[in-house]
Design goal:
Blueprint: H1 7-30, H2 34-53
Length: 58
């Protein structure tokens, strides 16, 4: 026989897990300092320039 599950409790646990995933994403997105954001932006710009430099001109 299977275990008895309280559906209200299971639904709340699922909602909490989804909120935690969203919170983790927001921590990564908004939790960086201004210096960290500048460094990340500089790395992205450098990577984009390197990629553009390897494109063929036709």
């Amino acid at each position: 026989m299977g275990d008895v599950v309280n559906l209200r409790r299971a639904r709340k646990q699922k909602a909490r897990a989804a909120e935690e995933v969203k919170a983790d994403a927001n921590r990564l997105r908004f939790g960086a300092t201004a210096a960290d954001r500048r460094v990340e932006r500089a790395r992205a710009d450098l990577e984009a320039r390197r990629l553009d430099g390897h494109k063929r001109s036709e």
